[in-house]
């Protein structure tokens, strides 16, 4: 009727994303128990009417810890990907507009930075700078800024060669105007797609760091930390180790299927 049909997989992905967003925002209001409270002497307990997701290795409520873990995981990942994409897109458009030595030097710097394996860089940086939440956000943002920069620069270079941009430059428009009014609107669709993909990468890297004990530290816990601390329950099929893993999977898969099923005119708009 309106000429716009949302594919079913995309709709499912959006519903899952919306559900996790609500959980991340309202987690303190939704948890039935304090995340650090020992509520049962039965460790790795099964799901019951009282404890919907069972209990963990100390007898704490897993449902409450997963809800609060969503707040930490999504919050850190969203902050990091926002910093990475804003910095990468801004510098990418600036490099495309200025060109010359500035473009060359900035591109070589980010090429050198991106040549370091992500996990190795993260491990060294966390070991040297600590694993506080601000430090984790900064490290994750720094790791994914080079990729965002290269992606945005490649799009901006193509737009910068268009006739309407050349005309605007001849009119004497400033670099800020060219970036804001001519280039950014025409690369926004692909940039948003890239934003979603990098969010997934950051969630997985953050969870990997926490699983290794170098991510979020107690008393806070993200989903990766929940898997690590309850890994002893894996032989018993304890919900305490299985459900945080499913939470990570549901979030990342929901983002991926949402991006994959975006209308083509949104994903491919770069002109």
TrEMBL record:
Question: Where is the protein situated, by its record's location annotation?
Answer: Cell membrane
Q: Which Pfam families match?
A: BPD_transp_1 (PF00528)
The reply to whether Cell membrane figures as a keyword in the UniProt entry is yes
**Superkingdom of source:** Bacteria
Locate the transmembrane regions by residue number: 12-31, 74-100, 120-144, 195-216, 236-259
* Keyword Cell membrane found: yes
Key words of the record: Cell membrane, Membrane, Transmembrane, Transmembrane helix, Transport
ABC transmembrane type-1 domain location, by residue?
70-259
Give the membrane topology, semicolon-separated if more than one: Multi-pass membrane protein
Family per record: Belongs to the binding-protein-dependent transport system permease family.
Name under which the protein is recorded: ABC transporter permease
Species this chain originates from: Chelativorans salis
